[in-house]
Amino acid sequence: MNVTTTTIAAIATPVGRGGIGIIRLSGSQALAVVKKLSHKKTFKHRYPQLCTWKDVNDEVIDSGLVLYFPAPASYTGEDVVELQGHGSPVLLRALLRRCIDLGCVPAEPGDFTRRAVENGCMDLSQAEAVVACIDAATERAGKQAQKHLAGMFGQKIESLMHTLTGVVAHVEACLDFPEEEIPELFLSQLCDQLKRDLCVPMQALLASASFGERLFSGASIAIVGAPNVGKSSLLNLLSGRERAIVSDIAGTTRDVLEVDFEIHGIPVRLVDTAGMRESMDVIEQEGVRRAKEAADVADVVVFLADAEREDTWHFDEPFDIAVFNKIDLIEPSKHKCMNGISLSAHTGEGLDKLLNALADMLGEKLVDGEDVFVTNERHRIAIQDAEHYVQAAMPMLLHEEQLDLAALELRRAWSALGVIVGVGDVEYILDRVFSEFCVGK
Predict the structure, then answer these.
(1) What mean pLDDT comes out for the span 196-225?
(2) Domain, as residue range, for 44
């Protein structure tokens, strides 16, 4: 069935009861369906109108507001109608069934946004930003998603593609007139342009990917160390609540304890582990084994030591950040002996320094403030491919006999970037991206 000739309908609000439930329709017959549903003949553009919706027996299904957005000035670029009724799952399903009886087709996941892409209302990177806006778990992630939705990331990619087009045009011109002698300086300048205007900005985008992807996928941080150094106290301090039991008795934490919070806008799962030590206690041995497993898969491992006890200052397993706890209990002159971050989980001293260090480990130091950056794996891989092709083309440009190969590599780079905004094998790209959407979006 051709999507351009069908009118789709779906419930656009989450599953469950709520104050308002919305059904969205898109397609050439959307308005006609709603007219039959409500027995109204006219609807003002972009103006909410109170209506009653009836079934085939002319009995009331529900009542609410109708909003009509005529093509092309709508989300999908087609006629779009929204029915805003009561948030009862039973009423919404009955209303949707009636829309289907009147000629609509049930929407598949991502159908509405897919039509927006196919009708030129947004590029593919903006469509993916719709999902990012929905999935954003922190305010910083939400702001970044909004920048992508506004087209800022797509504009960066299109600028790179425009530069590539210009370089390829120059190379193709050289190939079209082989009898002309090509100045060596000209080819060298093309290489310089590729490095300055393509490689440098692409490398900057790739550097931002570590932090950008973690804004949405999150990160895990494991706290490891000897028993009774304050791991549970640090977890409570970072999470802002008394999540773990704190005791002077060594070995209080027997299992892996997890708590979710955020660091500089990154969703973080913090893992408090059992104290690492030799023990004849079978339960404690299992806790140590699980602690090692948690450290192996964590994005960042924080080794925590007791500033008062030098026997806790050494750790045989790999770690990323060393933290010395309980500095409120020692003389300031002794701080110089410790190679790491000084902290008091009791008073909070040193907490900001630890949070900044963790954010840097998670990639924040590689991003340019709040600029738009790479936030998903698909974009990162595409830019990596494009940068690889450009790097391969640069030495070829310095040899006239390899100009055709250079042009081929640059065209590959252009195609790799085009995948991000939806240029290339469009059907394959769209099928892959929109499979991750929810129904009604």
Answers:
(1) 92
(2) 3-122
